[in-house]
Amino acid sequence: MKTTSLHYIHEQLGATFAEKHQGWNIAAQFTDAVSEHHAVRNSVGIVDLSYRSRHQLTGDDRAKFLHRIISNDIEGLSAGQGTYATLLTHRGKIIADLNIYVLEDAIIIDAAPETAENLFGELDKYIIADDVELSDLTAETGAMAVHGPKSSELVQSVLGVSDVAALPERHNCVREVDERFKHPIVCVRTDTTGEVGYMLYTAAEALASLWEALMTEGSQFNVQPIGWNALESLRIEAGIPRYGTELTDAVIPLEAELEHAIDFEKGCYIGQEIVARMKYRGHPNRLLRGIEIDDSPTFEDGCELRPGARVFNGEKEVGWLTSTTFAPTLGKQVALGYVRIAVTEAGSRVQIETSNGQVDATVVLLPFST
Q1: What is the edge-to-edge ordering of all strands in the sheet holding 185-189?
Q2: What pTM does this model have?
Q3: Cβ pair 112, 96 in contact under 8 A
Q4: Which of 119, 181, 364, 367 has an alpha carbon 20 to 30 Å from 336's alpha carbon atom?
Q5: Residue 355 confidence class, pLDDT cut points 50, 70, 90
Q6: What residue spans define the domains of the chain?
Q7: Would you say residue 38 has pLDDT above 50?
Q8: pLDDT number for residue 362
């Protein structure tokens, strides 16, 4: 299995590992997922995300090239800015969802590991006469996230940068090389847990020293290392879809409520006609929603809730679950899933298929109230 450059440090911290994201051996938890979850909600946690893919575009035509093939505006961005977008098929289905960061001399694309190989090929095939060079930086770089109410203070303390709290979502600043850090660090605002958060990117060989600095200086904030399990429950509570569960090549962005990933004024891009037709002439037949499970004796007695479980409204099948978790902040079992338009209003009552019969549940708008 593949490991990140922080694997040994995580072993020393007593992490339990699990295979995730197409063959990556990832720290699932360090203590227990619930306490790690609460650390992010109440103070600050750090998590290794080096398994995510990182691609770089350079060359004079890099912005123009990317702008014409993805769903959001790129040419309107300046260095230090960023956006969220999708790369679509000609039928408007999601090939990859993309975090895009504009630097002075490059554009960085951060994406789910499930899309890495396909994403590189899809981008590369559209480079024809453009002055663009596409590089895969995943192996030579690393990434970690810092999340929680104290994350701004911690990141500012470690990086020596005073204005990170003012960064808008997906905008970035660069911590240049000095005696303390021998490689540049790109800091990006990414609130992907429902709390203030930052992604930190640097060279793979510099990741361990950055991790140690965050852990050492974070002791004043009771920082905790965070594993995949807690990150997943935080994500689900925040109602944020991820590729491989809510987002697949069978989903159109509007079905997943990803209007913020689309610029409806920019004109043509791959899949634009389908998305525009759904927006202005029709509507999705299904939408992504949150689902809260009732406190019922049947459920407490061991009915297991699984992704893929069917959702019913009476006798009619109306959807399916994509992600499930116990939500520590809410103190209940919740799920993300797609349901048909008839039951997308908050408060709609549904029944969920389990291994031991059905359980009652309520449809809620995202994010879950925490």
Answers
A1: 172-175, 185-189, 197-203, 141-147, 45-48, 224-225
A2: 0.96
A3: yes
A4: 119
A5: confident
A6: 7-52+139-238, 54-136, 285-370
A7: yes
A8: 98
Q: What is the pLDDT of residue 23?
A: 96
**Rounded CA gap, 287 and 281, in Å?**
17
Measured N-to-C along each axis, helices 151-159 and 207-217 cross at an angle, to the nearest 10 degrees, of 120
Q: Which class in CATH covers the domain with range 54-136?
A: alpha beta
CA distances from 159 to 107, 162, 198 (A): 22, 9, 12
Predicted pLDDT at 179: 78
Pick the CATH number of 7-52+139-238 from 3.30.1360.120, 3.90.180.10, 3.10.290.10, 3.40.50.2300: 3.30.1360.120
Token readout for 180 is 């303390």
Architecture of domain 285-370: Beta Barrel (2.40)
CA angle 124, 130, 134 (to 5 degrees): 35
- pLDDT of the residue at 145: 99
Q: How many alpha carbons fall within 13 Å on the CB side of residue 270? A: 19
Q: Give the residue from 340, 106, 345, 325 showing the smallest Cα distance to 232.
A: 325
Strands 224-225 and 45-48: parallel
pLDDT tens digits for range 274-283:
999 999 999 9
User: How many CB atoms lie under 10 A from the CB of residue 367?
Assistant: 13
